[in-house]
Amino acid sequence: MPQMAPLNWLSLMIYFILVFLILNSMNFYTFIYPSKTSKTSGKSLIKINWKWL
Asked: In what way does this protein cross or attach to the membrane (predicted)?
């Protein structure tokens, strides 16, 4: 039935957009970013005194 073809394309487009959004959100929230505070807590800060000529 050619009258139903636009609904089929619309449902496929909605389906693929939803799958795309779900996969992107899973990828974003499952990736663990290294925190900046844990890197600096182990290191001591070195203070540099500049000597001008």
From this structure: Single-pass membrane protein
Q: Hey, what are 43's tokens?
A: 């290191």
Angle at 18 between CA 16 and CA 20, to 5 degrees: 70
Q: Which residues of 20-33 are buried (b: 16+ CB within 10 A; e: fewer)?
A: eeeeeeeeeeeeee
Q: One-letter amino acid identity for 45?
A: L
pLDDT tens readout for residues 6-48: 889 999 999 999 999 999 999 988 877 777 765 555 556 677 7
Instruction: Report the alpha-carbon distance of residue 25 to residue 12 in Å, rounded.
Output: 20
The model's pTM is 0.52
